[in-house]
Specification:
This protein is mainly alpha-helical. It has helices at residues 8-11, 14-34, 41-48, 52-58, 62-74, 77-85, 91-108, 110-119, 125-152, 161-174, 186-201. The chain has two domains: 8-62, Homeodomain-like (Arc Repressor Mutant, subunit A, Orthogonal Bundle), CATH 1.10.10.60; 70-201, Tetracycline Repressor, domain 2 (Orthogonal Bundle). The chain is built from eleven helices and no strands.
Length: 207
């Protein structure tokens, strides 16, 4: 099975493919609510009113379902970040857009993102390494923008870029574990995090 793709036999059967998508959604929901180790294949089947044995036609194991959910959770983060870095904007503008882009999937696919952030450590090595490469790519995008801001004088020259990247991403990633009601205003949350970051990083000459 290739990454986040159901078994090949399902691709030839549109009805089976739709069912596979429903099972992935159900797995994301249950993994997000209970965690990987707190989830059974029976619990996933119960969401859809299926027999537990039916799941194995679509996915060989609970671990395989986790891999697909995590892949979908991380999908798009790196591509959007790279597109923002390439823009002809100031470092502060791009940093603000990076924060907003990183938070957007928390509003659009919260179960998938929560599983990706909280449960990816339970993936098999190959999948975990593949996802880690994407995470490092996102971190690199933030680091490149911060470095550009230091170079052009808009950001303080004394910032530790690596630590600052981890602090900003830590704030962003923590939002997925807030109560659902507090995650509703995701655009406002993005503005607040970006404001906290840019105010603290701005140099005196760039103010």
């Amino acid at each position: 099975m290739t990454k986040h793709t159901p078994p090949l036999r399902l691709l030839r059967n549109s009805r089976a493919l739709r069912r596979a998508e429903e099972i992935v959604d159900a797995a994301a929901q249950v993994f997000a609510e209970r965690g990987y180790h707190g989830t059974s294949t029976q619990a996933i089947a119960d969401v859809l009113g299926l027999r537990q044995a039916s799941l194995y036609y679509y996915f060989p194991s609970k671990e395989a379902a986790l891999e697909i959910v995590c892949e979908r959770g991380v999908d798009g983060f790196l591509e959007r970040a790279e597109a923002i870095v390439a823009r002809k904007e100031s470092a502060l503008q791009r940093l603000t857009h990076l924060v907003a882009s990183h938070l957007e999937p928390i509003g659009s696919k919260p179960d998938y993102v929560r599983v990706f952030i909280n449960e990816r450590r339970y993936l098999p090595n190959a999948a975990r390494k593949r996802i880690a490469r994407k995470i490092r790519g996102v971190e690199r995008c933030f680091a490149d923008v911060l470095a550009a801001g230091v170079a052009d004088g808009t950001l303080r020259p004394d910032i530790d870029i690596r630590r600052t990247v981890l602090l900003i991403l830590g704030m962003c990633n923590a939002v997925i574990n807030w109560p659902a009601a507090d995650r509703d205003a995701i655009d406002e949350t993005a503005r607040e995090i970006a404001l906290l970051a840019t105010r603290g990083l701005r140099s005196g000459s760039g103010a």
